[in-house]
Amino acid sequence: MPLKSDNLLVLVMIATLGTLFMVASFIVLYIRNQAKIFRQRQQLQQAQIEHQKELLQVVIESQEKERTRVGRDLHDDVGAAISGLRLMIEMYNPTQKDDSYKKFITSSKTIIDKMLTDVRQISHNLSPATLSYYGLGVAIEEQVNLINQTGKLDIDFINDIDEQLKQLPSPAATALYRVLEELMNNTMKHARATKGAISFVIEDNALIITYSDNGIGMDTGLLSKGMGMQNIESRLTVINAIYAIETAPGQGFNIKITYNLS
User: Fold this and answer.
1) CATH number corresponding to 131-262
2) Pairing mode, if any, of strands 154-159 and 242-247?
3) Residue 79: which of 119, 129, 112 has the closest Cα?
4) Which pTM was predicted?
């Protein structure tokens, strides 16, 4: 009897161990399967993100090409036509030159000169030649000077890395220019600010851009609802730049943009 009991105990132990081994095997297989599914989901999400970024980049590049084309057409065709009209008015020489004629010539020249200035400004905004020829630093400085001349906003521009900025890839330079342009326009239109500041520095092989104003600020919960902020986020996403915003009602606006140079 003791022998049979011992044999039964051994069988029970073997069965128990076998059961535990099978359970452990199932658990290991389940964990591996879940890990595999998780990795596949991550890969799928990453692929979707990359695909979205590629589509976004195509859209932005198409927009920039169209901007360039329209800007060039405005400058070359419309600008030339307006200049030709001005020359024709100057050459017009009637037999009688009374006061009404002089007023007509003066007012016509004034209107045409304003049209030429507006066309050049629109052409520049659509496709800034300075950005292509002289780089991001000079292009932003030019834009800052134009804003400061209006007297509505005083922007302090700090840039000690102009040579490095000239080495930026064209897509990155264009994206950062459009982002800063959008930020300055937002400040002019909505912030009620009197002072602004832009700085370019390089830290740990990364370009750090800081933009701030002393305006009315806003609730951070409302940031994503504006089209301007969506455009900024889209352009920064395409070039793999990150950003952080600090703002609150009555506390002004500050954004720090980090673009990896490596």
Assistant:
1) 3.30.565.10
2) unpaired
3) 119
4) 0.62
